[in-house]
Write a structure and sequence with these properties.
Blueprint lengths: L1 E5 L3 E3 L4 E8 L7 E7 L6 E6 L5 E3 L7 E6 L4 E6 L8 E8 L12 E2 L3 E6 L1
Parallel strand pairs: 2-11
Antiparallel strand pairs: 1-3, 3-8, 4-5, 4-9, 5-6, 7-8, 9-10, 9-11
Amino acid sequence: VQLVESGGDSVQVGGSLRLTCTASGLMFNRYVLGWFRQPPGKVREEVAIIGISDIPRYSDSVKGRFDISRNNRKNALYLQMKDLRPEDTAMYFCAADDKWWPASTAPSGYWGQGTQVTVSS
């Protein structure tokens, strides 16, 4: 199984980015998928997850600004980010698990290597 993130970049405050996570080696449409991030010097935190029925969950810090989606035909997970803030600066990771995980926990499945997002003023 391989998860590969892309789309990270350096942007100005208020800018937008779309992250992509491409998966291989798993039955993509049977997995719950999520985005996590780890700011410099801080612990990893959940950003958003999406279930196999496309039901999303967002952290309060990104609600209304970020949109998670998936394309099962392309084995791809997306994170559309808008109105980016300096506090969104982090390494962003995608993750996949064959079951929904409770908030404030982490999936025990598969993880990508991350893509860096830097937001500057």
